[in-house]
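Why do we bother with holo predictions? Because pocket geometry can differ from the apo form. Keep that in mind while you read this record for zinc ion.
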Amino acid sequence: MRKAAGKRFRLLCCLCSVLILVCQALYGCGEKDVPVRDEKLIRVGFSQVGSESDWRMANTASMISALSESSGFELIFDNAKQRQENQFLAIRNFIQQDVDYIVLAPIAESGWDDVLQEAKNAGIPVIIVDRQIDVGDESLYTSWVGSNFLAEGERAIRWLEGAIQQQGRLNQPLRILHIQGTDGATAQIQRTKALNDAVRTHPGWTVVSRLKGEYTEAKAYELVRDFLSSGEPIDVIYSENDNMSFGAIRALDEAGISYGRDGDVMIISFDAVRDALKLCLEGKINICVECNPLHGPRVASLITQLESGETPPKLTYVDETFFSSGVLSEELIEEREY
Ligand code: GZL
Ligand code: ZN
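The structure, written out:
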């Protein structure tokens, strides 16, 4: 009797488990739903300038790690390879995909009015990161976070004035080789403005040549090598990012020209990425002006504020400093995030 009941019970159990399996297979019901596209994730389309410099790579890494799925984001990343038309394509693609936010690291300040009007018409908020944009209607973007590039340039000039004064050369001629970043980028416009303002106030200072290095080591190396072959003497290289400084240093080495703390040519460099700080510690670069690329957490917090209905500030400037060989150490360099 008992055996038969046991048999019936076992039969009933396996019938139920088959039923549950069938139900899960058909309706996905049961403890873990398999999301087709998890509605809870905030979908962000990010149009990045390219991968032209160490700074840019650090910026990309910061954005990817901050806008991660574990933090509640679905990131759609596009690398424009330093071409603005690729950024237009990426933004239109994000609009098609109906993302929740568009984040744009603009290659240059101008040209954004039309494509950002399309994003506005689609009701997609746009956050600008790093360089700024110049649009007729400032409501085309919700918020910007980045550096005060003019302040960076002025920091470099104040250091140069101090160094020249120490050498007793303040009113003597100073021949400056200026290596510029990508034309029309806010970092280029404002770091250049700081130098131009200084040349205007120091009669003996002259810019002997302006080279368009596009923030890359290769381009800067080529242009500085060609310039040095003219034999024109220089006292300072004002280089608008570290990778162009690396290129300039290669050309100076090939030309047998000394540079840095104890050399004939002082080098002023912007970004302060790790490899530049190491050269600064060795005395090969005189000053590294910090330009902080770690905007990922800042953008994530802007989006979080917007998600909770808050209105973040229109412009958020990050704090930055500068480094000369005297204040650097191996430990300090190792501790830095980029
Ligand atoms: C500055 C950034 C510049 C860096 C370069 O915030 O736009 O672009 O100085 C980078 O290294 O390529
Ligand atoms: Zn404007």
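Residues 52-53, 55-56, 130-131, 147, 181, 185, 187, 215, 241, 270-271, 291 surround beta-D-galactofuranose (ligand 1) (CB under 6 Å).
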